[in-house]
Write a structure and sequence with these properties.
Blueprint: H1 13-19, H2 61-73, E1 77-81, H3 84-95, E2 99-102, H4 107-124, E3 137-139, E4 148-153, H5 165-175, E5 178-182, E6 200-204, E7 218-222, H6 225-238, H7 244-255, H8 270-286, E8 302-306, H9 317-320, E9 328-333, H10 336-345, E10 350-351, E11 361-364, E12 376-380, H11 386-401
Parallel strand pairs: 2-3, 2-4, 4-5, 5-6, 10-11
Antiparallel strand pairs: 1-7, 6-7, 8-9, 9-12, 11-12
The structure holds pyridoxal-5'-phosphate.
Pyridoxal-5'-phosphate binds at residues 83-85, 106, 108-109, 153, 157, 182, 184-185, 204, 206-207, 216, 218.
Family: Belongs to the trans-sulfuration enzymes family.
InterPro entries: Cys/Met-Metab_PyrdxlP-dep_enz (IPR000277), Cys_met_metab_PP (IPR054542), PyrdxlP-dep_Trfase (IPR015424), PyrdxlP-dep_Trfase_major (IPR015421), PyrdxlP-dep_Trfase_small (IPR015422)
Organism: Umbelopsis vinacea
């Protein structure tokens, strides 16, 4: 068969999601097989042959295929991990920044940065670095030096609001600082952070790439195969590898980014379809912001809606998201008790944490992150019909308001 993956520029995004790994298939199977073996027969020295596989912590056939697809779709070279947090921590160990410029964002990220700091503490207690320890974490917008890492989460958890990635990368590169973008909330084909100058990109693959709330995984995307191989070599001894079943589920989900082509006017891709439904739902809910009654939403229910699509910025936000904005946003209700209850009054949105799956979710974010406004409900939009989701919000908001 013709090897379509030889030149990715010849194919469109959804074709690549299905064919980018064709040349790595070593059987006549059309659907990729599940491999669960942790170890492999080694070639007889008299008949040197074999597939190069030794032990599953080093590599597996399915993981290699997933990395090929993820790398191609992200326009870089991908390395997978057991979770989004393990990929983030692996990135820190790889970059070894002197200081990290970071704002708010996902609480787990701040958790492993504390561990990184603790480790630096041991090293520096007996060195000149000691003075710098308390300065290890700096404000996202602080002045940068060579050796700094800018950790940019865009879109930002939990609001879905975004940063001007291009502006941050230009500012950092001027002084020799590195930029990592956590692009979990907006995977390709919504945006490509490497195109905006990011040096390294991470995604919690648990969210949009896996897309079905059934597989935990993380991915780092870098610009060269050489750097990807350094990460793989570290990963081999850290042991934070993507499990065999997870690798298979992820590969299957990446194929299924193709969705609903038969529907008139609907988008071809799972993630872009979620993105479009979200933009419409956000615009509709936002009409009730400031406590206004709107189209069946009761008065005094919604204080504000936060999302990139309603964010006021003075830079070209559309250019950064050519495929649409992310499918996670936040609604600030008018009271803490309403925000606590709405996730349980909604019927199509499950009251659960996480995002990116085909099922819509809503959660009172304060319960996981006490730094967040206690009136905030984080919403992840799945693949249900827009009209059904609107109706669900009408009835849930009426219920908590009465
Ligand atoms: C979920 C998430 C993570 C962590 O990913 P896991 O796969 O849960 O370990 C990191 N960053 C962001 C923005 C996330 O939403």
């Amino acid at each position: 068969m013709v090897q379509l993956d030889a030149d990715p520029s010849l194919l469109g995004f959804s074709s690549l999601s299905i064919h980018a790994d064709d040349s790595l298939s070593n059987s006549s199977d059309i659907a990729p097989p599940i491999h669960v073996s942790t170890t492999y027969s080694q070639p007889d020295p008299d008949q040197p042959d074999g597939n190069g596989l030794v032990y599953s912590r080093y590599s597996t056939a399915t993981r290699d295929r997933v990395e090929r697809v993820l790398g191609t779709l992200n326009k870089g070279h991908a390395v997978t991990y057991s979770s989004g947090l393990s990929s983030g921590y692996a990135a820190l160990l790889h970059i070894r920044p002197n200081r990290i410029a970071i704002g708010g964002g996902y609480h787990g990220t701040h958790g492993f940065i504390e561990i990184y700091k603790r480790h630096r503490d041991i090293v520096s207690r007996c060195s000149w670095l000691y003075d710098q320890i308390n300065k290890a974490i700096i404000d996202l917008d602080a002045e940068l030096q060579k050796g700094d890492l800018v950790w940019l989460e865009s879109p930002l958890n939990p609001t879905g609001e975004v940063y001007d990635v291009l502006a941050y990368t230009e500012r950092a590169h001027k002084v020799g600082a590195i930029v990592m973008v956590d692009s979990t909330f907006a995977p390709p084909p919504l945006t490509w952070a490497l195109d905006l100058g990011a040096d390294i990109v991470q995604h919690s693959a648990t969210k949009y790439f896996a897309g079905h709330s059934d597989a935990l995984g993380g991915v780092l995307v870098v610009k060269s195969e050489k750097e990807a191989n350094q990460l793989r070599s570290d990963r081999n001894v850290l042991g934070s590898v993507l499990g065999s079943l997870e690798a298979w589920l992820l590969l299957r989900s990446l194929r299924q980014v193709v969705y609903g082509t038969h529907l008139e006017g609907s988008s071809k891709l799972r993630v872009t379809h979620q993105s479009q439904t979200t933009a419409s739902l956000v615009a509709w809910l936002n009409q009730a912001s400031g406590g206004k009654a709107h189209d069946g939403i009761p008065a005094n229910a919604i204080y504000a809606v936060k999302h990139a699509s309603v964010q006021k910025v003075n830079w070209d936000i559309q250019r950064q998201y050519p495929g649409g904005f992310g499918a996670t946003f936040s609604v600030l209700l008018t009271s803490k008790t309403a925000a606590q209850r709405v996730p349980f009054r909604l019927k199509l949105f499950h009251a659960a944490t996480s995002l990116g799956g085909v099922e819509s979710l809503a959660e009172w974010r304060y319960q996981h992150d006490p730094e967040i406004d206690d009136r905030l409900v984080r919403v992840s939009v799945g693949l249900e019909e827009l009209d059904d989701l609107k109706q669900d919000w009408r009835q849930a908001l009426s219920d908590v308001s009465s």
